[in-house]
Amino acid sequence: MDRFPNAADVDFHSPLDLTKAAAAVLDAEGRISGWGPSAQRLLGHPAEDVLGRPAALLLATGPRPSSLCTAHRPRATVLDLACRDGRTLRAAVNFSPLASQGVAATVVLAAELEALRSWEAQLAMLQGLATESSVGLTIFDTDMRVVWGNVSTDLELAGVAQYVGRPAADLFPEGEFISRHHPPDEDQIMEHVLTTGEPIMGMHYRGRAPADPVREHVWSCSYHRLLDARGEPLGLFEESLDITDRYRAQERLSLLVRAGKRIGASLDVRRTAAELADVAVPQLADEVLVDLPPAVIEGRQPPTGSAPGHSLLRMHGRTPEEFRTSPVSYPPSSPQALSLATSRPVVDADPPGSPGGPAPAGRRSSLFVPLLARDAVLGLATFRRSSNPDPFGPEEQTLAVELTERAAVGIDNARRYTSQHATALVLQRSLLPQRLPEQSAVDVAYRYLPADSRVGVGGDWFDLIPLSGARVGLTVGDVVGHGVQAAATMGRLRATVRTLALLDLDPAELLTRLDGLVAQDSEPHADDGLGDEALGVTCLYAIYDPVGGRCVWASAGHPPPIVADASGSVALSALAPGPPLGLGSLPYENVELSLSNGSVVAFFTDGVVEDRRTDIDSGIDRLAHVLTWQRCPLEELCDRALSTLPPGPQADDATLLLVRTRRLGAGQVADLELPPDPAMVARARTDTERQLETWGLSALAFTAELVVSELVTNSIRYATGPVLLRLIRDRSLLCEVSDNAHTAPHLRRARRDDEGGRGLFLVAQMSQRWGTRYTGSGKTIWAELAIP
């Protein structure tokens, strides 16, 4: 099938060729004695109109043909000929005199001048291709042997004559096709073109020309079949254009594109160094080495004024498991030291050896480029060549500098990220409880698993807060986001929860107040800490009372706890959590549970149960299954729970707080209900003394009686209903007096002439702690006495 069906016919015969030109014969007198059909086609005159007549009748202007006929040698001229239809044709005319004079004295050939000029231009073009074109043209016969080459081919081969008659494979013995869309073997390509007639164009060929064996070149080659006049194959010809500079420019551009996508994407110093090597090898160099100061690897500021004598560490390995370093230093006179001192690239065509290892055999070239970021020298990158003896040229140096600049920015970002991550991790861990306080209500175990280092430190927190009456407050929360901001927000919220918990607020009330504070801090004008991070805060707060086993909790957008009772039965809460903190839209509700002695309660953040690869329901099921082993030690249960996490890096912090509940025995609690009669104060003192004697705490009798007397007296004075006295023997002696009054007593310093106001002052002086908490029916005043 013709590949160019609309192309014009190309005929390289001259218009004055006998097969194409208008031919006529003149006698010695200049009369027309012969008139061919081609002459009739050109001028339109039939033979009967012109034979025997003077040729001058055919001239529009110009010299007389008789003068041209008398010439003794061929002449060529341009004449204006008169056509039969009245037109004037400007023609190129050749006069060729014959040796014998007679009827046929001169043969005249004529052609349209414009057609002749077009043919001459085509001939000049062919001449230029053969002698002046930079495109190499080589003709091969049907046996794929060299027949002819133009001047460009002759220059590349250092003389094409020596290859005439030799196979194509002899031209570039070590060359290869680097295009992938055709077979890489030249014989197969040429055989395909000869057999099918289908040209193959745009093949990229790499090799070393005989005229320049040192430098590697790249050519764009095309192959076309040659046919004779009968349409039989004569062979084929090859067009080759040296595109070395363009090809290398495209490679440099593609290299920069790859570098932009790969270098510096990991926020890890060692990986960024490995990414630089991955991108540059083998296109730019055979080996890339990166040397950094220890401070940069550790995330600290690079040493100022990186002098040549600075000790550096050479990076090895591309994964955390393979990563290692080896010390390296450079003498002041070395090219590496010069590059570091001047902050400029330095080329060493054949360095004597590297301080990092023995020099490879044979000639090699090295390029040393300092790693510069924000006017600081972070280290040195070394580009080495061993297979390619060419030294690094200016364009390659520029490319190496651009790659190194990208790597330097990535390394500096990774260094700063490492520093910030370490700071955030220290901050977060310092804000989390270092150890939970000892108390009798619960046994606890906890695990905190920070997010993978590529993501950053998160905002998880947990806490155990001792409350009055041997109760404990338990809290767990999560701030959306990572980094120092999230850690600082977490610290503020944890401190706020602890402060509110010590006010003895119930969980729903505590979350309501915390929600108002978070919403206030999240307003657009607030710029003092929480900001946008606070818009994604979840929190759960619970209070456990070991006297009756009562647990009350409320949630602000946080997953509810999972409870496993003493038999191993696991229960999930049916109440949906309230809205996250800071929205201020819906109220929070308390959930009340009665926990048997030895129950295990799991408080957790979503990092324990949620992963990108699994949904949260599957994670909760995994954790619930672990809690069926609740008889195991809590530390073992924590390890079992975290071992069920999917393998791989953590996308979020995972915090788990396991609590095993205890109930205080009946022998540790004594209750006494008293009517609102001042005479009952003496009974309260007597019963207190008797109970302390039973507990073996007679040494506390005087102090306890005084405290109980003051608290009961205060309640009877202001209450309108019964007064309840409760004594609890725990790690300390707890004295609680509850009534139906909602007015809290205030500690004040009485004047000398005051008759009252000294009771609470005495209570505060004689107890470790004291305070007031409100209940649904009134209030409770409590005091805590140390057991000697």
Number of DSSP strands? 33
What is the end-to-end distance?
111 Å
Strand order, biggest sheet? 2-1-6-5-4-3
Q: What is the arithmetic mean of pLDDT?
A: 83
Largest sheet: 6 strands, antiparallel
Poorly predicted runs are 4-8, 351-362, 525-534
Gyration radius (Cα, Å) is 51 Å
The fraction of residues in strands falls at 25-35%
Helix proportion range: 25-40%
The SS-based structural class is alpha+beta
The gross shape turns out to be: rod-shaped
* Number of helical segments with 4 or more residues: 19
Please describe what this structure looks like.
A 6-stranded antiparallel beta sheet has the order 2-1-6-5-4-3. A 6-stranded antiparallel beta sheet has the order 8-7-12-11-10-9, sandwiched between helices. It is 30% helix and 28% strand. The protein is α+β, with helices and mostly antiparallel strands and 788 residues long. Strand 20 (461-466) and strand 21 (472-479) form a beta hairpin. The protein contains 19 helices and 33 strands. Helix 12 runs antiparallel to helix 13 (507-521), helix 17 (680-694) runs antiparallel to helix 18 (701-718) and helix 18 (701-718) packs antiparallel against helix 19 (759-766). The longest helix is centred in the middle third of the chain and has 38 residues, at 394-431.
